[in-house]
Amino acid sequence: MSWRIVYIEAADQMKLYLDNLKVVREGQEVLIPLSDIHTILIDNQKTLVTARLINKLAEYHIIIIFCDEKHMPNVYGISPHSHYQTSLVLLKQVKWDDKIKGVMWQKILQIKITNQANILEYLRKDELCVNQLKALAGDVQFADETNREGYAAKLYFNTLFGENFIRNRDSYDGINSALNYGYIVIRSCIARSVAAHGLEPALGIGHHSQYNAFNLVDDLIEPFRPVIDLWVALVSGHNELLTKERRQQLVHYISTSTVQIGNQKQTILNAIDILIQTFIKSMNNGNPELLVYPTNVVAV
């Protein structure tokens, strides 16, 4: 099973050599077996990538991500033919009824809020807030019709990062930029797994924007967001820039840390696959109880 997230900060060229990724930099060459690679993250504007390599990456179900000039992941290269029964999987997906979608979305948000509470508990934050979040998780209704997620998010982030903190996806302060970067990397890994299992990523169960090609990915990322929150809370500050070293540390953290899922420890990347496999089984059988999800996201 692939397990590496390869971070390319500087390289003259990336090309295929047999079944290996060859990275060339100032006359030096590094070979990495494609069978080991889960994701390639290119964080510069000058690296040349051959078409032959890109086609081979698709064959190995490897997602390649290009960052913009602000070092944020911006362009994803992923094969639309990652699964051998894509049309059959799609036919089943479009038949999922609204009832199972609403119940599953309720369950996913309950998991997310519970994991948020566990993060605060681990960090020994306000016990009252921890108990409030656990209560809110239990109060999530069908399809989150009363928006318990939104209320929980405000309570959670203000307790985690301070009362003056505002979660802003367009902000580049130390905490928001680190959260944005981590979420995007996790989102990319989930997109890769969603495509590999033959699902259509635009067809979500909780997210439904006509302008979002990754609605389902944004549904399935929710239980894993607190993994990133913990790292940011431990490492980043409001006024600290997201340096190259920090980005490398965050990518390494995502690719090597473990979480508790299904009564066993798994890497974050393996846990994503487990959740998506059991999500498909749950939706096709109309039984949310078949979902296997992370119950302890204090990654170690």
Automatic annotation (TrEMBL):
Keyword Magnesium among record annotations: yes
GO terms of molecular function: DNA binding; DNA endonuclease activity; hydrolase activity; metal ion binding
Cofactor dependence: Mg(2+); Mn(2+)
Record's keyword terms, sorted: Antiviral defense, DNA-binding, Endonuclease, Hydrolase, Magnesium, Manganese, Metal-binding, Nuclease
Pfam family, one: Cas_Cas1
Presence of the UniProt keyword Hydrolase in the record: yes
Listed GO biological process terms: defense response to virus; maintenance of CRISPR repeat elements
Complexes and interactors: Homodimer, forms a heterotetramer with a Cas2 homodimer.
Family: Belongs to the CRISPR-associated endonuclease Cas1 family.
NCBIfam families: cas1, cas1_NMENI
Functional note: CRISPR (clustered regularly interspaced short palindromic repeat), is an adaptive immune system that provides protection against mobile genetic elements (viruses, transposable elements and conjugative plasmids). CRISPR clusters contain spacers, sequences complementary to antecedent mobile elements, and target invading nucleic acids. CRISPR clusters are transcribed and processed into CRISPR RNA (crRNA). Acts as a dsDNA endonuclease. Involved in the integration of spacer DNA into the CRISPR cassette.
Protein name: CRISPR-associated endonuclease Cas1
Organism from which the protein derives: Listeria booriae
Gene: cas1
